[in-house]
Specification:
Length: 259
C-alpha cells in the first residue's frame, strides 16, 4: 500500500512541476464555458427571429459538448504526454529505476490524471449547463432542464467518459511512445476516422455500432443516427472494456520490452 501511495505522490509531483497541466486546465474551462456561452447566446437570438424554423433550443448534452467534445480531447493529450514526454526526454529509464513495478507506475499515473480530470470535467460541465441556461433565457432554454436520467447522464457521464479516456490515452502513449503520432491518433480517431464509416453504405452502418467513441457518445446522449444493439449503459460498458483492453495491452508490452 505504501508503495502505491509513494508512486502516486511521485506522479503528483511530476505532474505539478510542469506548466502543461495548468494550460490544459485553462483550455478545458475555456472550451467548455466558451461553447456553452455561444450556444446560449445564439439560442436566445434565434427565438427573436421571425422565421420559427430558425429557432434553436439547446439540450443539456449540447450545452456541455464543449467539455465532452473538445475538453476531453485536451485531457487525453495531457494524459498521453505524461508518458510520451518521458520517452522523448529520456527520463523513462530513471522513472523505471525508481519504480521497478511498471504496471503500478502506469496505473497510478492514469488514476491520478483520470480522477483529477473527472472532477474537473464534472465541475466545468455543471458550469457550462448553468451558463448556457442563463444566457439562453426562459424561452430558448426550455430544454435545459436537469430532469431525468438522460439529462443528468450528460453531466456526470462526461466525468466517467473523461476517466476512461485517460486510461485509453495513457495506454496508447505507452504503446506508441511518440508524442506527435499519439496526439494525431487521439484527435483524428473521434473527430474524423469514425465518421468515415458512414461513407461505406450498409457495411459502414453495420460497423458503426461497434465503434468505441460512437458508443461513448451514445452513452452521453448525443444523437448520431446509429442503430445500436444495446442501450446507453451497454455502450458505456463497451467503451470501458475497449479502453481498459488497450491499457492492459500497454501494461503487458511495457513490462516486457526495454525502456
Amino acid at each position: 500500500m505504501s508503495t502505491a501511495l509513494d508512486t502516486l505522490r511521485a506522479e503528483r509531483i511530476k505532474l505539478t512541476s510542469v506548466q502543461s497541466p495548468l494550460w490544459c486546465t485553462v483550455a478545458i474551462v475555456a472550451l467548455g464555458l466558451g461553447l456553452a456561452a455561444i450556444l446560449g447566446s445564439v439560442s436566445r437570438a434565434s427565438v427573436g427571429m421571425d422565421d420559427e424554423m430558425g429557432n434553436f433550443f439547446p439540450t443539456v448534452d449540447a450545452a456541455v459538448s464543449g467539455v465532452s467534445g473538445f475538453g476531453v480531447l485536451v485531457l487525453m493529450i495531457l494524459a498521453a504526454l505524461s508518458v510520451t514526454s518521458e520517452y522523448r526526454f529520456g527520463v523513462i529509464r530513471t522513472t523505471f529505476q525508481a519504480t521497478p513495478n511498471r504496471v503500478l507506475l502506469l496505473t497510478m499515473k492514469a488514476v491520478l490524471i483520470g480522477v483529477l480530470g473527472a472532477v474537473l470535467t464534472f465541475v466545468v460541465s455543471l458550469g457550462a449547463f448553468y451558463l448556457a441556461k442563463a444566457l439562453a433565457g426562459p424561452d430558448a432554454g426550455r430544454e435545459l432542464v436537469l430532469d431525468g436520467d438522460a439529462a443528468w447522464r450528460a453531466i456526470y457521464g462526461t466525468s466517467i467518459y473523461a476517466l476512461l479516456c485517460v486510461f485509453l490515452a495513457v495506454g496508447l502513449g505507452t504503446l506508441l511512445r511518440q508524442s506527435a503520432g499519439t496526439i494525431a491518433l487521439l484527435m483524428l480517431w473521434p473527430l474524423l476516422l469514425e465518421s468515415l464509416f458512414s461513407l461505406f453504405g450498409s457495411v459502414g452502418r453495420e460497423i458503426q455500432p461497434f465503434l468505441p467513441f460512437a458508443n461513448a457518445n451514445h452513452f452521453l446522449g448525443t444523437g448520431q443516427g446509429i442503430d445500436f444493439h444495446w442501450g446507453p449503459w451497454g455502450s458505456l460498458l463497451y467503451f470501458a472494456a475497449f479502453s481498459f483492453l488497450v491499457f492492459a495491452v500497454a501494461l503487458v508490452v511495457v513490462d516486457r520490452r526495454d525502456a
